[in-house]
Automatic annotation (TrEMBL):
Protein EC: 2.7.1.33
Swiss-Prot/TrEMBL cofactor(s): Ni(2+); Mn(2+)
The Damage-control phosphatase ARMT1-like metal-binding domain, residue ranges: 573-891
One matching Pfam family: ARMT1-like_dom
Protein name: Pantothenate kinase 2
Involved pathway(s): Cofactor biosynthesis; coenzyme A biosynthesis; CoA from (R)-pantothenate: step 1/5
Lineage per the UniProt record: Eukaryota, Viridiplantae, Streptophyta, Embryophyta, Tracheophyta
Chain segments carrying region Disordered: 32-59
Keywords noted in UniProt: ATP-binding, Coenzyme A biosynthesis, Hydrolase, Kinase, Manganese, Metal-binding, Nickel, Nucleotide-binding, Transferase
Recorded superkingdom: Eukaryota
CDD domains membership: ASKHA_NBD_PanK-II_Pank4 (cd24123)
Family: In the N-terminal section; belongs to the type II pantothenate kinase family.
Catalysed reactions listed for this entry: (R)-4'-phosphopantetheine + H2O = (R)-pantetheine + phosphate; (R)-4'-phosphopantetheine sulfonate + H2O = (R)-pantetheine sulfonate + phosphate; (R)-pantothenate + ATP = (R)-4'-phosphopantothenate + ADP + H(+)
NCBIfam families: panK_eukar (TIGR00555)
Length: 907
């Protein structure tokens, strides 16, 4: 273990280093063979030697390689702690002002030796996930930009990340480019021509030029079809996401506001025409603005505008009409009659005008002009929808409001301006899509998950210095970043209502004085491509499905949940740090995690729609993601273990008690048991306070004793009727389980046992990754095996479900006969959060769902915060104890610790 322990961030628990370095090498080479590159066989260095990296191409770094799990296994997992997992693939859009970079890093989840998976796959007929014939195996799309005038920074970035070495082989598969092969990178924009030589010289790569308009359209179409919260309207400071119906996307007008402006009528996927444009665009604002104000950067110029008053320089209708409106033609006194018009009539020089006023006047002039020309073109072709892209917009509220106003005003509300979250990356994305056959264009909404990690190189921002190499650098960055103060949290300035309304040509005022730094532009995340994700097949109406129950666009609600999460943070950090041994390193990571999560919260508090439509589920997931980002693998690991053990110890008594009851009483006791045991929730403030007051078993007893019917939502009698009144039992039940300890052991497993006893197959559906104290699919087989020691029903079913292949359990009656029991299985749900978005579930869950006719959702996260209003094609039971006062009031007009037993027959 010695070598591995040196890396403080490596999970060392399950790693056994083999004695023979050669064994590892061979295993590594074998593994590699699976993924393609034959060349690696020759490239593997002799065992035992230290490994040198060739500068010309990325190669495997085998240093400290180790087998994970049992080294006797035929197909062991090998950890390469020093190998970066990025095998990349890059496309560029080199514009007049900015270079946009989209790159792909293939990131297969570390294969883990999960035998459960094999049996589940065999049983449910899932063939190797949902892998398709094309090579996207899962990976990430990153978005980064640089100023064109600082092209060297961009070249350094590409070179340090070795992005230019990924390529496409003859089969159209992503691969590393052999050293002697001339690497080719897709590029669009004028710079693809202008800088072709420089790329050749500096990186040895050729730029394969793609037409700019083709790329813009391909990028826009991809985003509009594949990203759920891509397009939004922005009117009078109010941002609203627009759900685009894929079948009703065309035709539309695409207006790309870069240095110059292109207007493209898009009729279908490959069919479009550039119908107009204007040379008055982003370059004009930045260029003229720089000359007139002496600003050093675009952001500085934009920031100035926020403190500007354009009335000092623009000629208004009132200036011409002696302070009066020109009401006959609908112009108020404060309407701009002539941008910069006042400068002609006064004996003032440039120095006599405030740079702030000049910047605002210029911004308004250009935005209105573009809005107006766009409208005219929409009118020309009868287009109702106009999508605006390009980096001139820069997520700036006032710019968007101005454009929206112009479109709304001139079209009398007929046409609508919409903006794109990936605004300036359309061309680069389109160039990326032009790599043939990588299958990206086939990806669908449910296969993409957007994440917002911390750290400039990962976000759509400006790069300061070299890209962050490892976790340690990321932590330091986080520390420095927080020292820099409010940059990340400073909002994109919001325009107060009415600033751009008819006649409303007042001065814009911003909430934050400073413009949110581009370096922390956390409004474009990293797109994770997960081809195995599927829409849960039992949703009654997937199009109408909305996972979140609570609407966080209600500001009070937002504020409440932000406070809850902020207050919970210190306790969570304590648990997380303790779970990693409480070392100094763990403390440092804990601190960085807390800063990162707080920064996200602050950012979202200011601009709730920054990362797309925001629901409580997203916040809870973001917290788990943040923990993982700082390598906290499982913060509640020991708590979960302790509670599992304590609960397993009392399981036999509970089962005996249950078996002595009549069927009817037993069913009620079982459901009561699930509700009572759902009290063990380390995500609830109130419950955590409770745990200080008693042992697990005491609390469980107390909770059970308090179960008074009717519950606040109580459909038990209807459920009982279906269960006992109807002679035909359910064929297969999916049990979405929640917490470890009593919740699973004393609540859900006994309920599963009852279903099994009645001849219903049971599939336990658990998280793929840890979240709070939720039980994971990896942990479940061991828990089931322990429980099975005390129960024949569970044992036979678990055996039939292939769950006990490894477990050395002593059977109660010593018999080994193959029973005819219906199976008990475990599948992972594809997520790592206390909530579940059923539009994106694992392929094994989707497969298991095909034959299911009953689903049971358990816990606040899965049954209340999400899916409370979800409708299913089969019978559904939603069970939860409400461990939050406010939620109880809002959702069920009840109080804390009230229970929900909602039963909905198939719809
Ligand atoms: N950091 C920045 N530096 C320079 N220009 C910026 C920056 N952020 C936004 N812009 C604006 O974006 C415009 C460039 O937009 P972009 O879509 O990248 O077009 P192009 O491909 O012509 O470079 C600039 O002219 C400027 O108005
Ligand atoms: C995070 C949770 C959804 C987990 O609940 P569970 O799904 O385990 O029942 C829940 O604990 C919660 O909403 N907590 C925050 C509210 C509070 O502390 O009161
Ligand atoms: Mn939970």
């Amino acid at each position: 273990m010695a070598g591995l322990k040196e890396d403080p961030f490596l999970e060392t628990n399950d790693i056994i280093e083999t004695r023979e370095g050669a064994e590892i090498k061979d295993a590594v080479i074998d593994k590699l063979g699976e993924e393609g590159s034959q060349g690696d066989r020759e490239m593997a260095p002799p065992a035992g030697n230290s490994i040198h990296r060739s500068g010309s191409r990325p190669q495997l770094d085998l240093s400290k390689a180790a087998i994970q799990g049992n080294s006797e296994d035929r197909d062991p997992t090998i950890l390469l702690p020093n190998q970066s997992d990025d095998i990349s693939h890059l496309a560029l859009d080199i514009g007049g002002s900015l270079i946009k970079l989209v790159y792909f890093s293939r990131h297969e989840d570390r294969p883990i030796n999960d035998r459960r998976k094999k049996t589940v796959k065999e049983r449910l007929g899932v063939s190797n996930g949902n892998r398709r014939s094309y090579p996207i195996l899962g990976g990430r799309l990153h978005f980064v930009k640089f100023e064109t005038r600082k092209i060297n920074e961009c070249l350094d970035f590409i070179s340090s990340k070795q992005l230019h070495l990924g390529g496409i082989d003859s089969h159209g598969w992503l691969s590393e480019t052999p050293a002697n092969c001339n690497a080719v990178i897709k590029a669009t924009g004028g710079g693809a021509y202008k800088f072709a030589e420089l790329f050749k010289e500096r990186l040895g790569v050729s730029l394969d030029k793609e037409d700019e308009m083709d790329c813009l359209v391909a990028g826009a179409n991809f985003l509009l079809k594949a990203i759920r919260h891509e397009a939004f309207t922005h009117m009078e400071g109010h941002k609203e996401f627009v759900q685009i119906d894929q079948n009703d996307l065309f035709p539309y007008l695409l207006v790309n506001i870069g240095s110059g402006v292109s207007m493209i009528k898009v009729d279908s996927d490959g069919k479009f025409e550039r119908v107009s444009g204007t040379n008055v665009g982003g370059g004009t604002y930045w260029g003229l603005g720089r000359l007139l104000t002496k600003c050093k950067s675009f952001d500085e110029l934009l920031e100035l505008s926020q403190r500007g008053d354009n009335r000092t320089i623009d000629m208004l209708v009132g200036d011409i009409y002696g302070g009066m409106d020109y009401s006959k033609i609908g112009l108020s006194a404060s309407t701009i009659a002539s941008s910069f018009g006042k400068a002609i009539s006064e004996k003032k020089e440039l120095e006599d005008y405030r740079p702030e006023d000049i910047s605002l006047s210029l911004l308004r002039m250009i935005s209105y002009n573009i809005g107006q020309i766009s409208y005219l073109n929409a009118l020309r072709f009868g287009l109702k929808r106009i999508f605006f892209g390009g980096f001139f917009i820069r997520g700036h509220a006032y710019t968007m409001d101005t454009i929206s106003f112009a479109v709304h005003f001139w079209s009398k509300g007929e046409a609508q301006a919409m903006f794109l979250r990936h605004e300036g990356f359309l061309g680069a994305l389109g160039a990326f899509m032009s790599y043939e056959k990588h299958g990206l264009d086939d990806l669908m909404v449910h296969q993409l998950v957007e994440r917002f990690p911390m750290g400039a190189p990962y976000t759509g921002g400006k790069i300061h210095g070299p890209p962050l190499g490892d976790l340690n650098e990321k932590i330091s960055w986080m520390e420095k970043f927080v020292l820099k103060g409010t940059e990340i949290t400073a909002p994109v300035p919001m325009a107060p209502s009415g600033t751009t309304g008819l006649g409303g040509f007042e001065v814009p005022s911003s909430k934050g004085g400073t413009l949110r730094s581009d370096a922390s532009a956390l409004n474009v995340g990293v797109l994770h491509l997960v081809p195995t994700l599927e829409v849960f097949p039992l949703l009654a109406d997937p199009k109408m499905y909305e996972p979140n129950t609570i609407d966080l666009s209600d500001h009070n609600e937002l504020e409440y949940w932000f406070t809850v999460l902020s207050e919970h943070l210190p306790d969570l950090v304590d648990k997380a740090v303790a779970s990693e041994g409480g070392t100094d390193d763990a403390k440092r990571r804990g601190d960085a995690f807390a800063r990162a999560f707080s920064a996200h919260l602050a950012r979202l508090m200011e601009e709730p729609a920054a990362y797309g439509k925001l629901g409580l589920a997203n916040l809870l997931e973001l917290r788990e993601e943040c923990l993982r980002e700082f390598h906290f693998v499982d913060a509640y690991r020991s708590i979960k273990q302790r509670e599992n053990e304590a609960s397993l110890a009392v399981l036999p008594d509970l089962l005996m008690e249950l078996d002595s009851m009549t069927e009817e009483t037993r069913l009620l006791t079982l459901v009561e048991g699930v509700l009572a045991a759902n009290i063990f929730d380390w995500g609830s403030r109130a419950c955590v306070d409770l745990y200080h007051k008693g042992t697990i078993i005491e609390i469980y007893r107390m909770s059970r004793n308090k179960m008074q019917r009717p519950w606040r939502v109580d459909d038990f009698d209807v459920f009982k009727e279906r269960m006992l009144g109807n002679p035909c039992p359910h064929k297969r039940a999916l049990l979405f389980v929640d917490n470890s300890g009593a919740d699973i052991v004393l609540g859900m497993l006994p309920l599963a046992r009852e279903l099994l006893r009645r001849g219903t197959e049971v599939v336990l559906v658990a998280n793929s990754l840890p979240a709070l104290n939720d039980v994971t699919a990896m942990e479940l087989p061991d828990i089931v095996a322990e429980a099975a020691k005390h129960c024949d029903i569970l044992r036979r079913a678990a055996e039939a479900g292939g769950l006990l292949v490894d477990a050395m359990i002593n059977t109660l009656d010593g018999s080994k006969e193959n029973s005819s029991s219906v199976p008990l299985m475990v599948v992972e749900n594809g997520c790592g959060s206390p909530c579940i978005d059923l539009r994106q579930v694992s392929s094994e869950l989707a497969a298991a769902a095909k034959d299911a006719d009953l689903i049971i959702l358990e816990g606040m996260g899965r049954a209340l915060h999400t899916n409370f209003n979800a409708r299913f094609k089969c019978d559904a039971l939603k069970l939860a104890m409400v461990k939050n006062q406010r939620l109880a009031e809002k959702l069920i007009k009840g109080k804390i610790y009230d229970c929900v037993c909602r039963y909905e027959p198939a719809s």
